[in-house]
Amino acid sequence: MRLAAIHTYPVKGCHRLDHDGARVEPWGLRGDRRWMVVDEDGVGVTQREVPALALIRPEPRPDGVLLRAAGRPDLTVPEPADGDALPVRVFRHHAPAAARVADAGAAEWLTVALDRKVRLVWLGDPTARSVPDTTFSAPADRVSFADGFPLLLATTASLDAVNDALLASGSHEAPLPMARFRPNLVVSGCRRPWQEEEWTGRRLRIGAAVFRVARPSPRCVVTTVDQETAEKGREPLRVLAAIHAVDQKLLFGQNIIPDGVTAGAEITIGDEVALAGD
């Protein structure tokens, strides 16, 4: 098996960046989801309620981020190292984490782009947020503004299974790109679909880095949003319900956590992927 793609999402919920290589940090890939759009209550705004987030294309800049969107002027936002501190939550039921509020210009730009009053916050201290799911993590594990775990891994074999089922059903939405599932890492060369779910509880080596495989990822309506147009459809949730519902959850991909002894390693497209110890 090989690492086929690497993606980060500098601003949670916004468009992805594609990489040839990336540095693994304890809380995820470098630069991944260190920024988040929040509502007036300090709760993260996601594509579940605002699909237009997909149309915002952030790009990292030294000590900041550049925001781009069609019909809007580009805006460079500096890291708010001295900005107002705010306790924010990725989801309303999650524990709060301390973040810094970006300048008013970022709030104004995003409020117009998303047609709702929002602010932009920065996770200046990436050790501030614990992994919410304590059943599948250790007390010392940390996560950025990702939903629950530091990284999401998906496989091309499972995507092929989804698209084969869509094509067989005659769906006009077939085939779907991997971008619908918003993974960080994509692995090719699996012998069969859903093989990644068999890795739960084990360690996975990707190049020089080792990860603990936490649990398969239940999928939500974000997967129905076209990541290039922000238009919503019905798939892949309908086909997942037909071909891969497990305990009433629609699963696709694996949540993984960097192993403490290898955090800081570099991974590169083409790296070998194998279960550690095999």
Structural notes for this entry:
- The structure is a single chain.
- The chain has 278 residues and is mainly beta.
- It contains 3 helices and 19 strands.
- The chain has helices at 104-114, 156-169, 237-243; strands at 2-8, 17-19, 21-25, 28-29, 35-38, 59-61, 64-69, 72-78, 85-88, 97-101, 119-122, 151-155, 185-188, 203-206, 209-218, 245-246, 249-258, 266-268, 273-275.
- The strands form 4 sheets. Strands 1, 2, 12, 13, 14, 15, 16, 17 and 19 form a 9-stranded mixed beta sheet that branches.
- Strand 16 (245-246) and strand 17 (249-258) form a beta hairpin.
- It is globular, with a radius of gyration of 18 Å.
Kindly report the average pLDDT value: 96
Number of helices: 3
Give the C-alpha Rg: 18 Å
| Strand segment tally | 19
Can you write the helix and strand succession as a string? EEEEEEEEEEHEEHEEEHEEEE
Helicity level: 10-25%
Derived from helix and strand composition plus strand pairing, the structural class reads mainly beta
Main features:
4-stranded antiparallel sheet; single chain; mainly beta; 3 helices; 278 residues
Furnish the topology, listing elements before pairings.
Layout: E1 2-8, E2 17-19, E3 21-25, E4 28-29, E5 35-38, E6 59-61, E7 64-69, E8 72-78, E9 85-88, E10 97-101, H1 104-114, E11 119-122, E12 151-155, H2 156-169, E13 185-188, E14 203-206, E15 209-218, H3 237-243, E16 245-246, E17 249-258, E18 266-268, E19 273-275
Parallel strand pairs: 12-13
Antiparallel strand pairs: 1-2, 1-13, 3-4, 3-18, 5-11, 6-7, 7-8, 9-10, 10-11, 12-17, 14-15, 14-19, 15-17, 16-17
